[in-house]
Amino acid sequence: MFRLAGGGSRVGESTAEPVRRVRADAQRSRDALREAAKEIFAVSGVDAPVREIAERAGVGLGTVYRHFPQRSDLVTAVFRYEIDQCAAAAPELAAAHPPIEALRLWLDRYIEFMATKRGLVAALHSGDPAFAPLPGYFDAHLRPALETLLGAAVASGQVRRDVDAKDLLVAVANLCLPAEEDAAHTRRMVSLLIDGLRYGAGH
Amino acid sequence: MFRLAGGGSRVGESTAEPVRRVRADAQRSRDALREAAKEIFAVSGVDAPVREIAERAGVGLGTVYRHFPQRSDLVTAVFRYEIDQCAAAAPELAAAHPPIEALRLWLDRYIEFMATKRGLVAALHSGDPAFAPLPGYFDAHLRPALETLLGAAVASGQVRRDVDAKDLLVAVANLCLPAEEDAAHTRRMVSLLIDGLRYGAGH
DNA sequence: CGCCAACCGGAACAAGGTTCCGATCCTACC
DNA sequence: GGTAGGATCGGAACCTTGTTCCGGTTGGCG
Strand C closer than 7 Å to the CB of B3? Predict the structure, then answer.
């Protein structure tokens, strides 16, 4: 048997693996689906019908299931993507703002992320094994992002040292949960929290 | 217009309301459904199909929806019934055993109750408004039951006084959650907890 | 330019919740 | 005891939603 789609490796590319180039239309479909799912999940929750997502993405049902064999794969893909985006914002903010400000802005960004997670918490607790790896992904990506920002703020003397990044992530997440509708309230509470961070700082 | 099914009030019965007598077959169906649902929920979780419950109860689908207009009504009915049964066990145990023993036995009963609640916790967190009143019902019935037992045990000098009934209910419930399969483990932990109750008691 | 594997669309299937309505069965009344 | 009538029953049918399947289409390479 021949290796399927072994096309041939390109110059300057590692030949260790055949890296089949994805077709342009396939990539387009995948991106459109991710984007559509993200928007619809934010509005209707993660229980939104697959057909609705397919329609908004402008693709057929078969295309959805080609890229995401199960509904839950679409959910986790969106979740991972959003986690990545949120984590990626950290170094950008750190480069553009002073430490304490970068920290504050990133937490705003994190709140925005959590705000779209209606129903996902329930899904995580549903016992569906498809969602089991998500908490780990969450911790593996967001914690280091926050740790960097927090470390810089501590080093600059503007924030006390006895604050744990994971604690802070969980605390802010919990602040987001009850006020699913009232974003302003959440922001006030988190603002309070940030002020608390500064209490007893060296500077 | 005549009052529908106003049959007529009976001697010795308050005439304040017409109390339409439920038909015997209807009552039978309702009881059979509650019992069937209880058994099936315990085995397959609260997501079990309505058809399966109807079949086990030996009734048609229409009968299910006559008594429980929505699926969730069946779930809450079973939940309420089990809470009632569990709460009702408290005075019986109190009458038949010394205080500390009654307390221990009732907590065993409570554990048994919690053990069948697989998936219900997730349902409660799903945001479905149909389940919103359940936590209140839980607190309104089980807390007084435990408070009575706890009070008697304290009064007898066998249990310390600084234990709150609600805290205890939640703590035991949490002990039940992780060990969905290993009932023995849960019982060991709760046993430990009960011994803790005696620590520092007057007697 | 032409091939063909990968990709696409959507019809079709499966499962589960809910509705509907003719047939049936209690209960009240005579 | 018998009967009328409305409550109740059973299950077929309908709708929504997840998933599979397959014939038609197309991007990318030779």
Answer: no
CB B88 within 8 A of CB B143: no
d(CA A90, CA A112) in angstroms, rounded, equals: 14
**What does the mean pLDDT of chain A come to?**
84
What tens digit of pLDDT does each residue of A138-171 get? 999 999 999 999 999 999 998 888 888 988 898 8
SS3 content of chain A, % helix, strand, coil (to 5): 65, 0, 35
C1' of D6 to CA of B32 (Å): 23
Query: What average pLDDT does the structure give for chain B?
Result: 84
Per residue in B15-40, pLDDT (tens digit) is 344 566 889 999 999 999 999 999 99
Give me the CATH topology for the region B22-69.
Arc Repressor Mutant, subunit A (1.10.10)
| Top-confidence residue, A78 or B162 | A78
Helix (H) or strand (E) run with residue B192 in it:
helix B183-198
Q: Is residue A41 within 8 Å of residue A48, measured between CB atoms?
A: yes
Q: B residues 113-152 near A, CB within 8 Å?
A: 118-119, 121-122, 125-127
CA distance B168 to B142: 11
Which nucleotides of chain C are near protein (any atom < 7 Å from a CB)? 5-12, 15-21, 25-29
Class of A20-69 in CATH: mainly alpha
Tell me, yes or no, if B177 comes closer than 8 A to chain A by beta carbon: no
CATH topology of domain B76-198: Tetracycline Repressor; domain 2 (1.10.357)
Res B180: pLDDT: 56
